């Protein structure tokens, strides 16, 4: 029996944080699609449908080449939106969640970010 260094514990599943912005009306539809893709489930499975949401204002101006869902080409538009953060356990889950987000989100260009999380 070896003494000294403990044996390494099994590597935990990679965790990702998906952050996106959406106008209020499609929020619940988008979250439902993400949760169906497995996002918002804690790696140990004890919690599901988990998200953090904060309200804010997004500003943008569509240019001539845009086909905006909201706003008018050449005019600055301000929209009340939600910032939503969702944990994704595993690379396959985050990829499927991003596909679901793009499929359900009304905007031509979906604003989202994905970060790989570290476990310290």
UniProtKB/TrEMBL annotation:
Q: Where is the signal peptide?
A: none
Task: From the Swiss-Prot or TrEMBL record, give the protein name.
Answer: ATP phosphoribosyltransferase
PANTHER family (UniProt xref)? NGG1P INTERACTING FACTOR NIF3, PTHR41774
| Superkingdom per UniProt | Eukaryota
């Amino acid at each position: 029996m070896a003494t000294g260094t403990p044996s390494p514990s099994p590597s935990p599943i990679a965790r990702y944080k998906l952050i996106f912005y959406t106008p209020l009306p499609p929020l619940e539809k988008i979250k439902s699609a993400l949760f169906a893709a497995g996002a918002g489930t804690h790696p140990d499975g004890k919690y599901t449908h988990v998200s953090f949401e904060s309200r804010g204002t997004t500003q943008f101006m569509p240019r001539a080449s845009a086909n905006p869902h909201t706003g008018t080409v050449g005019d600055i538009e301000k929209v009340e939106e939600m910032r939503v953060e969702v944990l994704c356990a595993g690379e396959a889950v985050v990829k499927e969640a991003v596909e679901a987000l793009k499929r359900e989100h009304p905007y031509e260009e979906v604003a989202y970010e994905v970060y790989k999380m570290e476990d310290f």
